[in-house]
Amino acid sequence: MKSKLKIGVALSGGGVRGISHLGVLQALNELGIFPTKISGTSAGAIAGAMYCQGFAPKEILKIIVETNYFKFLRPAISLSGILKMSSIESLFQTYLPHNDFAKLKTPLAVAATDINIGKAIYFSEGELILPIMASSCIPGMFEPIKIGDKYLVDGGVLNNLPVEPLEGVCDYVIGVNCNQLPEDSNIKNMKNLIERSVIMSMNYNVYSRKSKCDFFIEAPGLGRYGVFDIKKASELFQAGYDQTMTYAEENHSLLELSETKISQEPV
């Protein structure tokens, strides 16, 4: 029997659209493809952490819907951000009680941005919850997260598809992007302007890393969903699932990563 392939999956940020990552992971698992390491930014870091903890994709979807994740965000009494993320720390503690990268069932890397030195940094050991929160801190919308002497914001600012932690340690890398930009947009207010500008910037650094991926999955039509449109959770999950199944039909080489396929091959 062939030795087990090391398969890395990089998950982009994209707000609620990150729920589509769960559909992708569900489809990959049904195809017999199980990541041996995941890296993620923002929503990708959250989905990745829950998956690496051992929750099945459909379980994670249920948790997100039932807890109404976004109700845990509250106004920040500060000039540095509109919303405060510390209130969701207790939610993460419920599902990641050990708060330790080393206790995850599958290795995980989380990308964040050091706002003072202007560099992307990656967490893969030690405390787990604060790096996830830092990775999700959209600048201007959330207060930065302080870890040690670093002030951290959303990893997507500099790296919204963190393939780097997978390079050299994985045989194959699957990139998954959910951060699409609609071709036309009706800019009604400053919030819309900021959101669109942030997505444009993050999209650029996603596509600049596409060539680093052996496979790149991007469900069409995600741009029509709002970043906080939690009511569309089931649709987003299905979009990721359907696109992965379609991608597998069109790219048979993806199926070569299946554990079922590997186990059937002679030594």
UniProtKB/TrEMBL annotation:
GO terms for molecular function: hydrolase activity. Pfam families: Patatin. InterPro entries: Acyl_Trfase/lysoPLipase, NTE, PNPLA_dom. A motif (GXSXG) lies at residues 40-44. The keyword Hydrolase applies. One of its GO terms (biological process) is lipid catabolic process. A motif (GXGXXG) lies at residues 13-18. A motif (DGA/G) lies at residues 154-156. It comes from the Bacteria. The active site is at S42 (nucleophile), D154 (proton acceptor). Residues 9-167 form the PNPLA domain. Keywords: Hydrolase, Lipid degradation, Lipid metabolism. The keyword Coiled coil does not apply. This is NTE family protein. It comes from Algoriphagus faecimaris.
